[in-house]
Structure formats: structure tokens, C-alpha cells
Design a protein that fits this description.
- This protein has about 110 residues and is α+β, with helices and mostly antiparallel strands.
- It is built from three helices and five strands; from the N terminus they run H-H-E-E-E-H-E-E.
- Strand 1 and strand 2 form a beta hairpin.
- Helix 1 crosses helix 2.
- The chain is globular.
Amino acid sequence: MTSFENTMISLYGVQGERWLADLPSLIQKLSMNWHLTDLKRVENLTYNYVLSGTQGTQAIILKIGMAAKELNREAAALNAFAAFGAVKVLAHHDSALLLERALPGQSL
């Protein structure tokens, strides 16, 4: 079990286990709906499941989390700061954000 999986289960218990079990199908659904390709899990996952990939020729980040309320706030903040250099929110779903990928994209 990865440290990410341990974190999700320790925070959310059985709900976290179910979310982890459903994660592959959610990724597949989002990939199909948003036409994403070349998805690869990023290193150092902590609280959200993050993948890099492409949407057509656009480099993207797909961020999936259990806490939809926090992702909604993050989307609102990124949109508010869009004119000041924040990454663009390309799409938003209850539990996922599709973001433009900042390059080189080093983890903060």
C-alpha cells in the first residue's frame, strides 16, 4: 500500500477505501469526457490524486480529490487570480480539476 493510500484510508476510513477502489473508473470517465491522453501519476502524492497528461496538444494536470468543497474553493481562487499568472482551470467536475500544466511544473 502506498503512503497516499494510507493517508486516504486513515483520513476517511471505509469511505477512503471505496474512493480508492473507484478511482480507476473515475479517471477513465474523466479521460473520456475531457479527451485526455498520456496520463501519468505524479510523484509525491499527499492529499489529492494528481496526474499529468495532455488534452490534444495542451499539457494538463488532472487533480482528483475526495473533498469536493476544497476543490471548488481552489477552482474559484485560481479563476480569481487567472489575470495574475495562476494556472488556468480548463474544466471542473465535482471531485476533479483539469488544469493547464505549468512548466517545468516542479512541486512546491
